[in-house]
Amino acid sequence: MFTIAIHGGAGVIRRDRYSEAELAEYEASLRACLAAGARILQAGGKALDAVTESVRALEDCPLFNAGRGSVLSADEKVQMDASLMCGATGNGGGITLVERIRNPILAARAVMEKTPHTLLGGPDAEKWAQAQGLAMADPAYFVVPKRLEQLREAKEKKKIELDHSGGGPTEIPDSNTVGAVALDSRGNLAAATSTGGLTNKLSGRISDSSILGAGTFASNATLAISGTGTGDIFIRNVLCHDVHALMLYRQSGLEAACREALEKLAAAGGEGGLIALTRSGELCLPFNTPGMFRAFQREGGAVQVGIFGD
Ligand code: ASP
Q: How far is Cα of residue 241 from the mean position of the Cα atoms in its chain?
């Protein structure tokens, strides 16, 4: 029995901020990106391939803050991060600070499969990815008008816009970082995450989305998990690994472990959400923001899409 879930970021996602047409577009995109991975699982494919494919589709969709549509740094650069992890083997890979790799998640996968390393970053990583045959794109390809507007607003407010905040120092409609978790018919788990990071961030800033344990984790012993939110706090609390550790060492249930991790995030001043899935197919999609773009499907079941908290 397979299960797959994706997120398109948590944040100040309230009905009054979107038109019906915009919501319909988000929903259709979430469905299409979920289907990209579900198709693989339906055909008996691997969880790792499914999460890679769903995140690749989310990166190609300009609505989301990953790949094309990524947010901009203070000096108007798109610098992208991604990571993924295989629950069956414990292998994983990440990529950070890349500006020209069309699909950062494919580069993260290549780091995992073709190097003895776990995290590559910057221009040398791009050169390496290009030599592996990965598709490159001009930096202008990633920039969409909405993100330029968000950067302008953030600069006016003199804020580093963590797209997630709900009335605190940052107030931006949506974060749109993306992620996927999957369980395949062999009982294996995998997780993947990809982001352009934060609006108006310093160029050179690295997000949790590229760091295993912080924004992404998978272990067949416990769960597959992808986070979205205040990335620096995810890193400092190794938040995704924390959920794993609560389950492994304290035998916490999935929901209790996720709740505890989100409480820790909030106590440290952070906001965000998680998508988390166990080998028995239990799924938990919690968030402490007004909304989180999300969708999931179980084998034989209908696609479920959620955006708001109510
Ligand atoms: N966690 C991401 C970061 O800090 C942002 C997000 O989830 O939207 O870069």
A: 15
Instruction: Give burial (CB, 10 Å; 0-12/13-18/19+) of 131.
Output: exposed
Q: What SS3 string covers 175-213? A: CCCEEEEEECCCCCEEEEEEECCCECCCCCCCCHHHCEC
Taking the model in full, what pTM does it have? 0.96
In angstroms, the CA 208 to CA 197 distance is: 9
Q: Whose CA is nearest to atom 4 of ligand 1?
A: 231
- Residues forming a β-bridge with 284: 276
Burial class (CB in 10 A: 0-12, 13-18, 19+), 10: buried
Query: pLDDT tens-digit profile of 3-36?
Result: 999 999 999 899 998 999 999 999 999 999 999 9
**Whole-number mean pLDDT of the chain?**
95
Which DSSP symbol is given to 152? H
Cα–ligand 1 centroid distance for 100 (angstroms): 19
Please tell me if the CB atom of residue 175 comes closer than 6 angstroms to any atom of ligand 1: yes
Distance CA 243, CA 289 (A): 19
- Is residue 177 flagged as an active site residue? yes
CA atoms within 13 A of residue 105's CA, in its CB half-sphere: 29
E-state strands within the chain: 3-11, 80-86, 92-98, 119-121, 178-183, 189-195, 216-218, 223-229, 272-278, 283-284, 291-298, 304-308
295, 306 contact by CB (below 8 A):
yes
Six token digits for residue 93: 């890979």
Q: Which two tokens stand for residue 78?
A: 């798109």
Query: Which residues, given as ranges, of the chain have pLDDT below 50?
Result: 163-172
